[in-house]
Amino acid sequence: MDANALKIELIQKIIACDDEDLLMKIEGLLKNIKPGASEAGESYEVEGRKSQLTNEQLEEIERRWKAYKSGEEKAIPWEDVRKEIQNKYGF
Predict the structure, then answer these.
(1) Which end of the chain is more exposed for a tag (fewer CB within 10 A), N or C?
(2) Average pLDDT, stretch 70-76?
(3) DSSP per residue over 15-59, as a string?
(4) Whole-angstrom Cα distance, residue 91 to residue 56?
């Protein structure tokens, strides 16, 4: 099993776990690991638990938020988005 497959398997097990004591032990084991992420051709570090988004992604969110607040762009209600996804993809 490669490292990425193992990570996915561990994440799935953690998500399914309801044992708070076990989760606290896992957190203790991982507390000294600095979160980070990398993608092909890109490398960046995540600052603590603040954000796992790149600066470019955060800037895009900020741009869209300002456009929404100014009335330049309008939001689409979740129900409409959900219906469109159901119609287009069948789920």
Answers:
(1) C
(2) 92
(3) HH---HHHHHHHHHHHTTSPPEEEETTEEEE--TTT--S-HHHHH
(4) 31
The span from the CA of 86 to the CA of 91, in Å, is: 5
The H or E element that residue 70 is part of is helix 55-70
CB 20 within 8 A of CB 26: no
Question: Can you give the pLDDT at residue 2?
Answer: 82
For the record, the structure tokens of 21 come out as 């004591």
Q: What is the pLDDT of residues 17-53, one digit of tens each?
A: 999 999 989 988 888 776 665 555 665 554 555 667 8
Torsional sign, CA 33, 24, 9, 48: negative
Residue 88 three-state SS = helix
Give the sign of the dihedral formed by CA 30, CA 33, CA 35, CA 36.
Answer: negative
